[in-house]
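Handout, page 2. Input:
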Amino acid sequence: MRLFQAVVLFFLAACLPARAENGIVGFVVIVVPNGTAPPVEAAVWYPAEGATPRATRLDFFSQDLARDAPLRGRNLPLIIISHGSGSSFTCHVDMALTLAKAGFVVAVPTHTGDNTRDRSGAADLGARTRQFAAVIEHVVDHWNPGAVDPNRIGAFGYSAGSFTVLVAAGGTPDRSRVAAHCADHPTFFECRLLAGATPSAAPPVLTRTPRAFRALVLAAPALGYTFGPGLLAELTMPVQLWQAEQDAVLPKPYYVEPVRSALPRPPEFHSVPGAGHFDFMAPCPEGLARVAPAICENRPGFNRAVFHARFNAEIVRFMTDALRP
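Output:
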């Protein structure tokens, strides 16, 4: 009996995420082919071994990382993150590090044409979905063969990244709703963005990833009103949904509420008192706060760093439960 119990415990342990040994997290920036379109830059955090972490500069951020270190473990769960409009792979660096320490491989593309360096394609949501799918396929099949379990993939999206994730997971937005929404709310973020964009001869082609997601985390989903009843019917996986109560960029009730109603199973819902739209982004270092005060605002009574300790812990808990073998 004791031998049997020992064998069972061994196999159970082998199926769980391999936590980063001694807190060592590996890091690499990769370039992902994207068909005839420009390649996609992506950063990957992962449990590592056999290397010494060193202070690593990631734009305005700094983390103790072991660049290009050997991976620890095989068949690990993968989390892919889609950042908000005009950002980069550094948008959620604290979340990526926390997930990697918990035993996940974390891949974060910098969306080509919609990032801190280049906003020329910010209105092309179809390009975002194609890039997202390309990064998943590359990380699973080519980055480090055998590193990722293709049956244990989760996704996190923030703002425009949440729309990207919803489409990639099988959502079908009704884009005819955008014109009516923007006629009523021309000053809203996406309406101003679309008003300044060059009209396209054809609507952007949205791409669903061929990989099946086991779990989704969505924060402040953009274009939520395009998902009416039945348009998220294929999203039967567990979903964790976050709303900032003081979101002035994507205000109530046009974004989170329609997504929450359209999901076929009730999500794990979190409403964050006092939080604004940008509070889902990593807490700002001093240098970033100087150059981008609008996204680093500290409102009285709300501490972004304290919130992120809870935010990241809740996501690790949710993904660990959802991505068990």
